[in-house]
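Handoff note, outgoing to incoming analyst
You'll be picking up this chain. Sequence as last confirmed:
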Amino acid sequence: MKPIFIVISIFFSCLISAQTKEVLFLWPNEVPGETEPKHEPVQTDNTSGDVIRLTNITNPSLTVFKPEKPNNSKAAVIVSPGGGYSILAVNKEGYEIAEWLNTLGYTAFVLQYRVPKKRKGALQDIQRAIRTVRSKASVYNLNPQKIGVLGFSAGGHLSALASTSYKKDAYPKIDAIDELSSRPNFSMLVYPAYLDKGENKSISPELEINQNTPPFFIFGTMDDRYGNSPLVMATALRNKKVPVALHMLSEGGHGYGLRKGNIAAKTWLDLAEIWLNKMVKSRALAKYERTINFPQVIEFPKRIPKKKDVWVFMMAGQSNMAGRGFVEPQDTIPSERILTINKENDIILAKEPLHFYEPKMGGLDSGLSFAKSLLKDIPKNVSILLIPTAVGGSSINKWVNDSVHRDVKLLSNFKEKVVLAKKYGTVKGILWHQGESDANKKKIPKYNKNLAILFKTFRKSVGNKTLPILMGELGSYSKKKESWIAINNAINKYASKDRYISVVKTSDLKDKGDKLHFNSEGQRMMGKRFAEAYIELIKPKNK
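Most recent structure output, in case you need it:
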């Protein structure tokens, strides 16, 4: 009787635990395509196998499971229980899985998607769930580029569908959350079903796999009636050169979750833990993800505005101005009033990333955010032209001496771009962020002197001695904290002596995990602060 008592104890402890957890409802108003009013899920009378079965879900939600001891990965996993799209085995393939993830230090979210027989609604729910978790990354101390999915049986099919259908919105956008990507950063399938509904039991046609499909972990058994699904999915991923780890045991059946008594249950747990830890902590994931949302099409303006109506801003410095943040869909929405250049010096509509000097490293910078914010406070007839010139790793000494750095002759390139800028508009200011390469005892004492030389040269090339310059502080997250503080002190001291220079504070902004570069949220916020600082700088001062 003792083993039975233990199982029953676990069953009720999971139920009570889930009932006391925070719940995030996915749809603030109407649920798209849902005809029934929102109400509590219905628990079926069938509790065989100590399984809580939910059905008739009309108000989809996420139950939040936070670890007592978070690991350092800042990764999260959205768990989708199975149940043939008729019910959700919410404890065995949901709550219990989330509790296990918590023991590994991961934040978990158990998804209650719509059932029964509402596959389209279920896809809408998981897309919205991924976006919701991503939108709350700062609330739960997560990295928005480390949000994965883990699905069982039908939930495995749903997770695979979310991982391959992210380019097509399953529902009309309703708010700012829907501007975020619904693409998971990794996908884990355990005894998945319905993946082989193509011709001759090939990959299901709704699964559109391409080179940008996220990495997969797949586990199944050969005696599972759905055992062909893991095989065809892994083959399709392999054919598209998507990273995939496939594990198949000879026996184990279907629907075992993580419960004891089945070798498959223990095996997938051990393998998944190793894969997950490696995946979210490796730099390979960030490298694989970097260009996922980069624009596929260059768009040219319908017309180039008159020269008198174009305000030009030069972007100079090193990597945090060149951009190392993760580009999301919201960063690639163009405006006819925000222009930039490509590497051929053509005028194009601005989409992130703006810088093109380091194609293997570039990412989100603060330029587009700056321009979008600035548009709110400048005349409606004015367009903004952003000219990128920043190159990662460039010290201020290299700028002053016009050195070649990463195939770019820094100061000469800046001057050439100023000539180009004047052809199309009036240079109204410079956005500058630099100093990481000079944050050492040898270079710090010379920093202010070099700033004075360089900024004088910048202004001379533009032909404006009072040209506004906006400087961003270094972040507060560096391992070389004292040196970075010294650079910031030098920046602020220099700015205090020049009426036309403003310094943007960054002490509250976060890094992207490398203690060197601002994350995407930080880049966007810095852009907004650059815009606010510029408006303040050009305001008429009382005499």
